[in-house]
Specification:
This protein is of the alpha/beta class. The chain contains five helices and eight strands. Bound molecules: inosinic acid and magnesium ion.
């Protein structure tokens, strides 16, 4: 039996032991805020717009790690244009802590069309910082694409050029988004239950 069919054979048993709504063992996330199907539909909408807008350009996509990992990977595969990619690994701003660059991108972006990809825009401080840093390097253009937008939490006047879902002021995890670096691999987006937040 090949590996795929072996794992297919075990799937029903797996769903009994770990029901899908309780994908992280022992944690009940309740109803997803966005299911993986809803996320994929939204990504296809964004991907169509980006493909049209950059049809005549040579786009360099820059993902902000770690949160943008799954979003970027699905978004790029929904594009109808060939792009190049790079990454910036940074910590987001927290209270008075500034944004810290853990690993900068490798490419020289002077004169290039850049699309920065982030999981969520909250206060806006992280993206604002990254935008200023990249604009200093004189790209031809710089736009921002986020999957989630907590618009009411904004502390700096900034908007994403492409935003998937606008969400209320709730702490969400899954599909790349973390709480203390956990739950990123949840396949959908859910509000983090209060009891897990205090744990
Ligand atoms: P900002 O600088 O306040 O816009 O924060 C952006 C960063 O904060 C994101 O890249 C996330 O890492 C993190 N963040 C903000 N809200 C959430 C959330 O609801 N869940 C998980 N991470 C979040
Ligand atoms: Mg984060």
């Amino acid at each position: 039996m090949r590996n795929e069919s072996l794992s297919e054979a075990f799937r029903p048993a797996l769903n009994v032991i770990f029901p899908l709504e309780e994908t992280m063992v022992g944690i009940d996330f309740g109803k997803p805020l966005f299911t993986s199907e809803e996320i994929q539909r939204k990504i296809h909408e964004l991907g169509s717009r980006i493909s049209l807008d950059y049809a005549e350009k040579d786009l360099l996509v820059v993902g902000v790690l770690k949160g943008a990992l799954f979003f970027m990977s699905d978004l790029l595969r929904s594009l109808r244009i060939s792009v190049r990619m790079d990454f910036i690994h940074c910590t987001s701003s927290k209270g008075s802590h500034p944004v810290q660059i853990i690993a900068d991108m490798k490419e020289d972006i002077r004169g290039k069309d850049i699309l920065l990809i982030e999981d969520i825009m909250d206060s806006g401080v992280t993206i604002d910082h990254l935008k200023k840093m990249l604009l200093d390097r004189n790209p031809a253009s710089l736009k921002v694409c986020v999957l989630l937008d907590k618009a009411e939490r904004r502390k700096v006047p900034i908007e994403a050029d492409y935003a998937g879902f606008r969400i209320p002021n709730k702490y969400v995890v899954g599909y790349g988004l973390d709480y203390k670096d956990r739950y990123r691999n949840l396949p959908y987006i859910a509000v983090l239950p209060m009891e897990e937040r205090q744990a």
